[in-house]
Amino acid sequence: MSRENEIEKQYARFTERKGRYLWLAALATLLLAVLGLALGPSSISLRDLFSLFGSGGEELHRGIVMQIRLPRVLAGIVSGIALSVSGVVMQSVLRNPLGSPFTLGISNAAAFGAAFAVIIFGAGSMNSSSNDAVLIANPYVVTLSAFFWSLIACFLILLVARHRGATPENMILTGIIASSLFTALTAAIQYLADDVQLAAIVFWTFGDLSKGGWRELMIQVIILLPVMIYFYRNRWNYNALDAGDETARSLGVNIGRLRLTAMILASLATATVVSFYGIIAFVGLVVPHMVRRVIGSDERFLIPGAALAGAAFMVGCDIVARTLISPMVLPVGILTSVIGAPLFILLLVKGKGGAQWK
Amino acid sequence: MITLSGVQFAYNGFPVIKGITHSFAKGSFTALLGPNGSGKSTLLRLINGILTPQAGTVEVKGRSAGSISAREMAREMAYVPQMQYNTFPATVFDTVLLGRNPYISWSPGKDDRRITAEILVRFGLDDIALKDLNKLSGGQRQQVFIARALAQQPSVILLDEPTANLDLRHQHEILLLLGELATGGITVLAAIHDLNLALKYCSEFIILDDGQVRAEGGSEIFSEELIEDIYGVRTKIIRHEGEMFILPTEPL
């Protein structure tokens, strides 16, 4: 065998190993999804659960699974994919390991946009039940408003990146400014709201997967599917961009268009999650770095890896949120922060191989 | 191959390139020389289409560079910027495979991997194919970047100070390699600071000063007066066994 063939074989084994990690992540996501259907204030045995997908099973269980848990688990999967892949793409196009919808202030901007639509445009209606403090009556208006305001944050980031460079310091400072600004604007909206609206908005800002149903899920999938395909389609271009703007340009990448489109679509993906479920922090930051440590930074594997790990992370956090102090259900946004923050510190402290600051 | 006609460029109104006209022949190895700030890097970026001339034209194989898409240009011309680091870790194989980007529509195919493997073996990088690029020495990294440029299968390679920060051995290895590429028919244009290295390996020279071409041609263009005028350093030109050496004597 020639030396060239040997090298090709070595590389094939190297990439196959990464492929196996993806299959493992897919399996973990599937297992967690099944657990997510079975576990909760009213636990359902696995046998009962599987019988629901046949002709048997109790009606009560069927109602719980089909109306509450399945949309919730799917919401976790879809939101986890959207936030994690958005984080990966933002980190790539800004060449900044601290890029994520939350750290760049895009989540807060989207949250403000959603609150704005709910209160000012009356796109939401209030319920007294704590689980449905705000029902989104017009999800299109909420999503559009969340997207519009997240775009404002996105352009702010691109403006700073263009004039001052996308260094970790600049991006974090811009993220702090954007977050503070939109938190203040949300507070201003809350100040104008009445007591019930105020309580509703405060509850709404907690990331919670119970807020959405099948309709919200469908809208998310319709928006996110083409966005994710676009991201995956450009995985090679993101790899090129990591080598620097000039190198990427000389490799045939239209960097201006790629960066702008990626940031706009990542903002849209974030907005669709935030507008339906509230702020879910740390997923877009922690998950990409966890995956980088396992399968490296090649976007061909990182994007699907982060998608699967993000889905697993969200579903896992939601299971903990539902079972930790059962029958009370915690908002998943609290869990992602409580688990994500120490995890990120751990990655920072042990930061060899994965998240390398420069 | 490449023709520059009256190319001008200014950063924020400050002129950096002031009307350069020159043609590069196929298979030539040209050293772009000149003091810091003379416009070498800017000229390379203008040729590669990273920057657009504000006056004049850059033509590649008879076509205006502005009318060639980034992807098409990448198949024609490769560019190796000054020493660079990836933000995130990447293997040597993946870095060189990235050179196939202008040919990849969905995913790298068998041909792309084969070409990458062949280049790695040719450059003697096969033993470190799966190593992290950021952990290699400066010389090895520069070799990897040139290998990536070659994976683009270009007819022109532009390099911005390819020997900067390299030790003596690696400086010679890199320039020897570029000379071989030129002999193989690839047009090579490299911005170089070291006049003696340029004299040893390059066949053509362009000396820039304040955004203008002060001298161009073979090694006969060098004179002690010209170097003193451009660099502000007194030198002595010595010829030994058919080679030319420039020795600084004292500053002006």
Q: Which labels suit this protein?
A:
A: 358 residues; mainly alpha; ABC transporter involved in vitamin B12 uptake, BtuC; two-stranded antiparallel ribbon; B: 252 residues; alpha/beta; Rossmann fold; 2 domains; four-stranded antiparallel beta sheet; 8 helices; globular
CATH homologous superfamily assignment of the largest domain in chain B = P-loop containing nucleotide triphosphate hydrolases
* CATH-defined fold name of the largest domain in chain B: Rossmann fold
Largest β sheet strand count, sense and barrel closure of chain B: 6 strands, mixed
Number of discrete domains of chain A:
1
What is the strand content of chain A?
under 5%
The shape of chain B, in one word, is globular
Question: Your description of this structure?
Answer:
The complex is a heterodimer of chains A (358) and B (252). Helix content of chain A is 75%, strand content 2%. Chain A has 358 residues and is mainly α. In chain A, helix 1 (3-38) runs parallel beside helix 13 (299-323) and helix 4 (106-119) runs antiparallel to helix 5. The two termini of chain A are 41 Å apart. With 252 residues, chain B is α/β, with parallel strands linked by helices. Chain B is built from eight helices and twelve strands. In chain B, strand 9 and strand 10 (212-217) form a beta hairpin. The longest helix of chain B is centred in the C-terminal third of the chain and has 16 residues, at 168-183. Chain B is globular and about 55 Å long. The model of chain B has no long low-confidence stretch (mean pLDDT 88). The A-B interface holds A 3-8, 10-12, 14, 91, 95-97, 233, 236-237, 239-240, 242-244, 246-247, 249-254, 292, 296-298, 300, 353-354, 356, 358 and B 45, 48-50, 69-75, 77-79, 81, 84-91, 93-95, 98-99, 101-102, 104, 106-108, 113-114, 117-118, 120-121, 126, 129-130, 134, 152.
